[in-house]
Amino acid sequence: MANFKNSFGARSTLNTAEGPVGYFSLSKLANSGFTGIDRLPFSIKILLENLVRNEDGNIITTNDIENMAGWNADAPVYHEVPFMPARILLQDFTGVPSLVDMAGMREAAKRLHINPIKINPHIPVELVIDHSVQVDSFGSRESFEYNVEKEFKRNFERYTFLRWGQKNFENLSVIPPATGIIHQINLEYLARVIFVKNNDGQRMAFPDTLVGLDSHTTMINGIGVVGWGVGGIEAEAVMMGSPYYLLTPQVTGFQLTGELPEGTTATDLVLTITELLRKKGVVGKFVEFFGPGVNALSLEDRATIANMAPEYGATMGFFPVDDETIKYLRLTGRSEKVITLIESYCKDQGLFRTKTTENPLFNDTIHLDMSDIEPSMAGPRRPQERIPLSKIKKTFLNDFKEASSTDGSSFNLNHGSVVIASITSCTNTSNPNVLIGAGLLAKKAVERGLSVKPWVKTSFAPGSKAAINYLKAAELMPYLEALKFHLVAFGCATCIGNSGPLPKAVADAVKNHDLVAASVVSGNRNFEGRISPLTRANFLASPALVIAFAISGKINIDFDKEPIGLDNNDKPVYLREIWPSTEEIKNTVKRVVRPEMYKKAYENAFEGSNQWKTLPVPEGMLFNWDPKSTYIKEPPFLKDINNTIPELQDIKGARILALLGDSITTDHISPAGAIPVDSPAGAYLIDQGLTPSEFNSFGSRRGNHEVMLRGTFGNIRLKNKLVSGIDGGWTVFLPDGQKMTIYEAAMQYQKEATPLLVIAGKNYGTGSSRDWAAKGTYLMGIKAVIAESFERIHRSNLICMGILPLQFKQGENHKSLGLDGTEIYEVAGIENKFEPLKELSVFAQGKDGKKTEFRVIARIDSPIELSYYRHGGILAYVLRNMSDNYN
């Protein structure tokens, strides 16, 4: 900060009990002639402060500040915004490949005669190991220890690598396994809200901001912190000191009024919000919540809503700091000195919302009366597919044809049998209201003599140890355990696809009779093939409803009319009879949830268990790559980088590798769950001498490009229209039409030097901020993706790997243009005066020689994205800039 310009005289001092603290005042900026700053959305104010504080005349200029200060709700103007986050948040599934890339960049730097130690995070990077535990054991008090033991055994190589990174990369902190879920730990412990750093002997205060390698980083928006999910390759550039570039955001104001009615939860609210905002269309926009209804929401309820911003498509779902924020900081054990500074800073800076605060001006607004909320679920394939609980049976029966029962050892299974019921994921387990509600429902169910059906695999994987602390204090854990919802892990388990194997009898019945089995999870993702390869209908629900469906054993039930089960006297019990009241939940939460529980949960957060402490730590500034490793390999896309920027070229003689429909997710492109034995990735691991029990998951092997490349477009539910009558990672090799796996075809095309394209429909790349969805696409030789629309993060990831995202003109798609994917393609206009959002010509020549021409828009939206594309990707861009600076 010492070298920054402060062109508008905004530097100021805040007097605190700890002495003076410097900061950059937005009110002083207003005094310099900028009007309307007080009516800017809170999220825009934070971006403005970021620019003012980081102005250096080079990367961030007075023009950047003036553009943001002049943000206009009625007449939006788009400029490139260089955002400098205060920190970066990683989880292990995405963090391991990012650190593998960083280690690979050190090797590349050495080849470019750059000091490898320059490859080092410039800002704090916090990595939480939370995505690797699988639910191998369940329904037992020994399940937790067993699953942790298996986790360490499976992930020995990965965790050893992380220990090396922790030792050799500056500014990197690692929270070891079995501590909790990244977003809940961020909310309860890591979030500063206001950062304080020493700068030339003076303490400087500024808003906590971040980008994270998980799309649900947005959960932190609930506490007033600006942050969102980005791709790993983008985050690596930010680690190296580059800004994260975005276009001036549009902000949709979401007005909340009323209060949640009796019998509903924050889960019902967020599923309704997700449905509304998906219909509204907020992809790439900020959503900021306001109105009197915000006052009726706990901080945890707000975090639940913010968490699912990726599901409703927004960059953020933001709640400003207010009295509820301060109350939550106190509840979670932050010190009074820290809380006082946060409150003082936010009030001085105009970042503190009160009941009398004038509403900001927004580009657009939407309204929801929370008193209209009804119990809801989402499914069977996407989070935005909200279904009122009262209609779940009818919806399922309409979507899936019912069939006769089949024997599953000592019980019968049907279409609609719930085989997985899991209380999991950051969305809900950060919220004492819904967890206490689930515990109270379990208590009432057990007291009525109800039990979970024997074919249901149950699990409870809370986001932090604090959740267990208050459930024990409320004396509710025994009832959850009586229904087999034992603690299985502290981490992201079922929701990420780590549900583990089903009991053999259940799995055999599902497979042998082709049953449409169901899962019910309290998570945020239910994409096809994600929860389990054996559940075709996957539903999101509140923790209490997860328990209810575990007791009923089936998804096709109408709880209003049908009993959930029979009591000890064989009398019917209805869900409404055991559903806890809102008052009962609130009173219990007030009685048992205490700051000491959070302090205890995090007192040794960075220390870890003996299993973690005793892991070996490899020596050396450069990582010693083991050629026999099946987890960690040097990334191939960094090996050929040199100091020469490649020339842009048109794409000629291209073939279509996959012709896809709407809502292709990053799970479709880069699977997260189990590795099938009969897949190319499974065959590779068997060739390396592994047995199927040692495969682990796709997510855990993201540090090995050989596995991930073979898994690209390998989702078991993928529907490639080039191949009829079969799901999964299949295609035809053209021109002869031979059916083969997408991986095999891509490798054959590479041998023939044939460039590849993918064609898709709307919302291409929804879902997780999964860098391997772009890396795998790149390694397959795909030069461009042509889609009707793109999800924000994946579009950016494609560019960061040197892949061109092309968008059909409005109203056009492959069907309207008469394309069947067997044509030979040319994309023209790339090598001639290429610029952001340029229209390009695509020529498609069919088997009969007929040529179809259509126009597409190059979705390179800004000058910096064009620079990344010209360099062949963001990592090459960063390394070449370093070479210029340090050679």
Describe the protein's architecture and organization.
With 887 residues, the chain is α/β, with parallel strands linked by helices. Helix content is 33%, strand content 18%. The chain is built from 32 helices and 34 strands. The strands form 11 sheets. A 7-stranded mixed barrel has the order 26-29-30-31-34-33-32. The protein has a 5-stranded parallel β-sheet with strand order 6-5-4-9-10, with helices on both faces. The protein has a 4-stranded parallel β-sheet with strand order 14-13-12-15. Strand 1 (11-16) and strand 2 (19-24) form a beta hairpin. Helix 17 packs across helix 23 (595-601). The radius of gyration is 27 Å and the shape is globular. The model has no long low-confidence stretch (mean pLDDT 93).
Q: Quickly count the helices.
A: 32
Radius of gyration: 27 Å
β-strand amount: 15-25%
The profile of the biggest β sheet is:
7 strands, mixed, barrel
Strand order of the largest sheet: 26-29-30-31-34-33-32
Termini separation (Å)?
Answer: 26 Å
Mean pLDDT: 93
Give the helix/strand class.
alpha/beta
Q: Based on DSSP secondary structure assignment, what is the total number of beta strands?
A: 34
Unreliable segments (pLDDT under 50, ≥5 consecutive)?
A: none
What level of helicity do the residues show? 25-40%
Shape verdict? globular
